[in-house]
Design brief:
- With about 210 residues, the protein is mainly β.
- The protein has three helices and ten strands, in the order βββαββαβββββα.
- The protein has a five-stranded mixed β-barrel with strand order 1-2-3-5-4.
- Strand 9 and strand 10 form a beta hairpin.
- The N terminus is likely disordered.
Length: about 210
């Protein structure tokens, strides 16, 4: 787990998450300070946007724009290249000496927790649906539609055929603009597995 970015966990194992560490230099666009690119050490120019706290920090200390930092980020994927983009939550504070090695080992690693909703064995990838964690006390008429609070992550790797509809905790590693599966832990069956057609039905179809 990426212990330096672990959020407060709700009272359930089914909390959603997509967070990790990336080292790079943020370059704002000319039109908007909070919209720009993150230039990583391996040369990836990933679209990026600053979230509230990060925007305030860089507006007060623009000298921080002159060098790369370790960022706590929320990853997003898209179909067109570059396939990876980031929401920048904060600059990771300089770790204590005893934490330095652990933090550097976690750069370009992410924890993803969500529902597996699509598996493409031929392409070697799968899709995870990640919802925003909302407490029941925070639900309003505006937040009742969960489709307004979700995003999809396309990850590279092979999952079990019965993983569809299941909640998994995944450890992934960034390679260029792709997120590669390194480890997976089954958490719960959320949707009922798809039923296989019975032999009788298959026979009728043939007839």
């Amino acid at each position: 787990m990426i212990n330096c970015t672990t959020p407060i966990q709700p009272d359930t194992e089914l909390y959603y998450q997509a967070v990790g560490l990336v080292r790079g230099q943020y370059l704002p666009s000319q039109g908007s300070f909070s919209q720009g690119i993150l230039l990583t050490e391996d040369g990836l120019m990933a679209p990026a946007n600053l979230l509230g706290a990060a925007t305030s920090l860089l507006e007060r200390h623009e000298e921080l724009l002159q060098q790369p930092h370790i960022w706590i980020v929320y990853p997003r994927t898209k179909l067109q290249p570059p396939h990876l983009q980031f929401a920048l939550r904060a600059i990771r504070q300089p770790p204590a000496p005893e934490e330095l090695e652990v933090v550097h080992q976690n750069i370009d690693y992410f924890t993803v927790r969500g529902l597996v909703t699509y598996i493409d064995d031929k392409a070697g990838n799968f899709v995870v649906r990640v919802y925003r964690n909302v407490k029941s006390s925070d639900i309003t008429e505006h937040t009742k539609d969960k489709d307004d609070q979700l995003f999809l992550l396309t990850l590279v790797g092979i999952m079990p055929k019965d993983a569809y509809g299941q909640f998994w905790e995944l450890r992934v590693h960034r390679q260029a603009d792709r997120l590669i599966l390194k480890d997976a832990k089954f958490i719960a069956q959320v949707f009922q597995p798809k039923k296989k057609p019975s032999k009788k039905r298959q026979t009728k179809k043939k007839l």
